[in-house]
Amino acid sequence: MEHVLEADGLGKRYGARWALRDCTLRLPAGRIAALVGPNGSGKTTLLHLAVGLQRPDAGAVRVFGETPYENTAALAEIGFVAQDTPLYRDFTADDLVIMGGKVNRRWDATLARTRLAQAGIPPRTPVGKLSGGQRAQVALALALAKRPRLLLLDEPVASLDPLARREFLQSLMGGVAESGTTVLLSSHILADLERSCDYLVVLQAGRVHLTGAVDDIVAAHRQLVGPRHDGGPVGGVAAVVRARHTDRQSTLVARVDGPVSDPAWTVHELSLEDLILAYLDSGDARANHEAWGVPA
Ligand SMILES: Nc1ncnc2c1ncn2[C@@H]1O[C@H](COP(=O)(O)OP(=O)(O)OP(=O)(O)O)[C@@H](O)[C@H]1O
Fold first, then answer.
1. Number of helices and strands (H, E) in the chain?
2. Which of 121, 150, 203, 236 has its CA 20 to 30 A from that of 105?
3. Residue whose CA is closest, atom 5 of ligand 1?
4. Residue 164 is part of a domain; what is its CATH number?
5. What pTM does this model have?
């Protein structure tokens, strides 16, 4: 299987503090991958390392087998839309399409203009006067016009209303399905991801918490509800991700390795959103409370 992006023990620190640590992952070609994690978990840092904006302090990241930092040839294959969709605000969308043609080897101006027309973007209005959602559409059209083999998007839908978000993700999926581009997009809006992404990377406190194909991850987890459980082994359960208890009842989110046949447990499938939340919830809440000197 071809891996577009490979990270091995990748780390980045600011001063003494690691923003990303021991990050090892493989992103297979042709996937639309979601990069999720709480604020400050290292998503932007990982994307910046992948697009060569930053140099690793530990380990390595490779894109199409190349190290992206200060590597112009590798960067020609990567499209990147940064968190705040920075665009030259005094230029019109049409100016930006023309400029893109001057600085990119492979540039599909017709693709950009078609997408901008479909999104209803006026060609001759300075982009600084467009709405946040319209600017996001301009940034996506420009990134796709580069015909990248890997597209990295940092919270592309954060500024969009629910309808615009759905349209943006549909148009993204349509755009990359045609071209076979691999996508890694960070987002906090988990409900959208199950529809649009087929691969998942969950970061927590700078480390990879969970990664793999969405179908495999969903198939390997269940919610179990049963009488209060003391933490001993449960047949069919490989690992408990999160346990919640009342006086009489326990609710487990578990990774399973076979059928849970004990009739004491009622077994439910989980949505991707609930599963991700369970992983994030199982994280280092205790460490955060200790840092603030308050009880968890
Ligand atoms: N320029 C910087 N200088 C110092 N620390 C930084 C810098 N950029 C990021 N950090 C720290 O690195 C960690 C990871 O930040 P990063 O922006 O990668 O997280 P994120 O997951 O993208 O967060 P968010 O969801 O809030 O955008 C955080 O603890 C952050 O405070």
1. 10, 13
2. 121
3. 14
4. 3.40.50.300
5. 0.90
